[in-house]
């Protein structure tokens, strides 16, 4: 016979808290993970088999809840008193001092989209084809034509690049 849930909390609560603190360190995140563990366990308690190793099951749930809390913590903004003076280059392509973005914008639409989705966005040709329409081979061709055009026009003024290729 399975013990009442309250007994499982009393018997294994300290073990679950140790697991949460081992993953998250002491503090409110570990306490929250402990609470989340037992909330999830309470929801699943009726379906837990009679012969289940309750402690091992709770430790596994606690480990997963602690990892979820760690991931959540890494996504939160960190408050700061001083805002940096310079803009971050992360995720910002910056200025167009070399005219690259202007050259990309001048490409025909299918070439521009193929270059953007495949080379800038990192999508495989098949996924880019789903967005643009057509086949993966057609997107591959459009991307190749777009890059060829960029090499020809973007580096036309630089004798070391593009024009001699």
Structural class label: mainly alpha
Strand runs, count: 0
Tally the helices: 7
Mean pLDDT: 83
The whole-angstrom Rg is 28 Å
User: In which range does the helix fraction lie?
Assistant: 55-70%
Strand content: under 5%
- The string of secondary-structure elements, in order, is HHHHHHH
Shape category:
elongated
Termini separation (Å)? 78 Å
Q: Please summarize the sheet with the most strands.
A: none
For this entry, what is the oligomeric state of its chains?
Answer: single chain
Low-confidence stretches: none
Verbal overview:
The chain is an all-alpha fold and 165 residues long. The chain contains seven helices and no strands. The protein has helices spanning 5-24, 28-44, 54-75, 100-105, 109-120, 125-132, 136-154. The longest helix is centred in the middle third of the chain and has 22 residues, at 54-75.
SSE layout:
Layout: H1 5-24, H2 28-44, H3 54-75, H4 100-105, H5 109-120, H6 125-132, H7 136-154
Quick description:
63% of the residues lie in helices and 0% in strands. It is built from seven helices and no strands.
Defining traits:
165 residues; mainly alpha; 7 helices; elongated
């Amino acid at each position: 016979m399975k013990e009442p849930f309250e007994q499982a909390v009393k018997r294994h609560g300290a073990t679950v808290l140790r697991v949460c603190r081992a993953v998250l360190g002491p503090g409110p995140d570990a306490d929250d993970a402990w609470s989340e563990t037992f909330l999830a366990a309470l929801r699943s308690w009726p379906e837990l088999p009679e012969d289940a190793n309750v402690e091992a099951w709770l430790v596994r749930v606690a480990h997963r809840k602690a990892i979820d809390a760690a991931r959540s913590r890494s996504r939160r903004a960190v408050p700061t008193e001083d805002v940096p003076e310079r803009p971050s280059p992360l995720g910002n392509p910056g200025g167009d001092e070399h005219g690259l973005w202007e050259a990309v914008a001048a490409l025909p639409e299918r070439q521009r989209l193929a270059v953007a989705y495949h080379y800038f966005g990192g999508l495989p040709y098949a996924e880019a084809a789903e967005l643009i329409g057509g086949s993966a081979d057609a997107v591959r061709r459009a991307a190749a034509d777009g890059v060829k055009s960029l090499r020809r026009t973007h580096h036309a003024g630089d004798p070391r690049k593009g024009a001699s290729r």
